[in-house]
Amino acid sequence: MSGIAVLGAGAFGMALAAVHAGEGRRVILWGRDPARMAALAARRADPDRLPGVSLPEAVECTAEIGRVRGARALLLAVSAQNTGAFLAERGAELPRAPVVLCAKGIDARTLRLQTEIAAEALPGAPLAALTGPGFAGEIARNLPSALTLACADPALGPDLQRRLAARRLRLYLTDDVIGAQIGGALKNVMAIACGMADGAGLGHSARAALMTRGFAEMTRLAVALGARAETLAGLSGLGDLSLTCNSTQSRNFSLGRALGSGAARPGGTVEGVATARAACALSARHGVEMPIAAAVADVLEGRLTLDGAMEALLSRPLRDE
Ligand SMILES: NC(=O)C1=CN([C@@H]2O[C@H](COP(=O)(O)OP(=O)(O)OC[C@H]3O[C@@H](n4cnc5c(N)ncnc54)[C@H](OP(=O)(O)O)[C@@H]3O)[C@@H](O)[C@H]2O)C=CC1
Ligand SMILES: O=C(CO)COP(=O)(O)O
């Protein structure tokens, strides 16, 4: 095959497969569980992960990694904390094609970004990252969205942009791979904070304060890591922050909301939990103040109550904006 392979058959992997098949591209969707992939091949749907969406017949669902051998682009969509394990296990079996990292998160053990994990596991592989505001369910239903494709290679970036864009999925290109990934990873932490405030009934003004000061934290850390501040003001930063902090479709926002209201914790992949811890470690390493990320990590890990976290944030010394 000479098309696209999507590795990781969760909600986002299925959505990407559906979009590309809808453009007439050949798509292999690989997932690790043979029984689930056989069921997906037969039913063309997974209502638990992606309700209301059917996969086009042009998507080949498989658990055999050898089927991706001829792919000309690999979209890696396993959850962020599992990218390292996946590549350690399967990296040697992947073809030498550009790898586009689609997960949003900083590895909590190594503090690496997704492209940094891939660069170590697949030395010399051409890499890019896909990030920005877009819920899998909406993308899969072909509702319009715009994402960021980040690629440091000036020849590969435009080529991937052209090959991976779709009629309803615009891709904006940047060479700021660090900035784009920091935005995508940290907006989840801020969405948990906003969800907590919403669940606790703290009001819309509190949410606006958390989003704006959270954006300042995201930008500070990104710049300390070598990114450009302007990248954070784009789709991958401000764009995704706006989406995720304002929608109950977001699992990060919903987790925060459950914690804020005392409801049961929802399951599923909530990337901001591990990334809050990673962000605190990076902020300490680089001497960057990140009080909201720290408060989120403290609440998630039981060191502070929600009231205690709010008190800690409100009692900080007054300062210039
Ligand atoms: N859902 C969304 O709206 C969007 C999600 N994203 C990002 O995409 C990433 C994936 O999210 P999403 O698809 O929603 O999450 P899901 O939980 O639906 O899917 C994650 C997938 O990763 C697979 N996986 C985990 N570990 C491994 C491993 N070691 N080897 C192989 N496969 C593995 C899981 O397999 P199994 O099913 O067997 O557990 C699962 O299919 C996240 O980083 C998220 O932030 C980005 C944009 C939108
Ligand atoms: O990244 C997303 C939208 O851009 C999805 O957000 P959640 O992971 O919080 O559901």
Q: How widely separated are the two ends? A: 54 Å
Shape annotation:
globular
Please tally the β strands and state the result: 8
CATH top level class name of the largest domain: Alpha Beta
CATH architecture of the largest domain: 3-Layer(aba) Sandwich
Task: Outline the biggest β-sheet.
Answer: 8 strands, mixed
Low-confidence stretches: none
Q: Tell me the name of the CATH homologous superfamily of the largest domain.
A: NAD(P)-binding Rossmann-like Domain
Oligomer: single chain
CATH topology of the largest domain: Rossmann fold
Number of helices: 14
Order of helices and strands: EHEHEEHEHEHEHEHHHHHHHH
Q: From the helix content, strand content and strand pairing, which structural class follows? A: alpha/beta
**How many distinct folded domains?**
2
What distinguishing features does this structure have?
single chain, 321 residues, alpha/beta, Rossmann fold, N-(1-d-carboxylethyl)-l-norvaline Dehydrogenase, domain 2, 2 domains, eight-stranded mixed β-sheet, 14 helices, 11% strand, globular, binds NADPH dihydro-nicotinamide-adenine-dinucleotide phosphate, binds 1,3-dihydroxyacetonephosphate
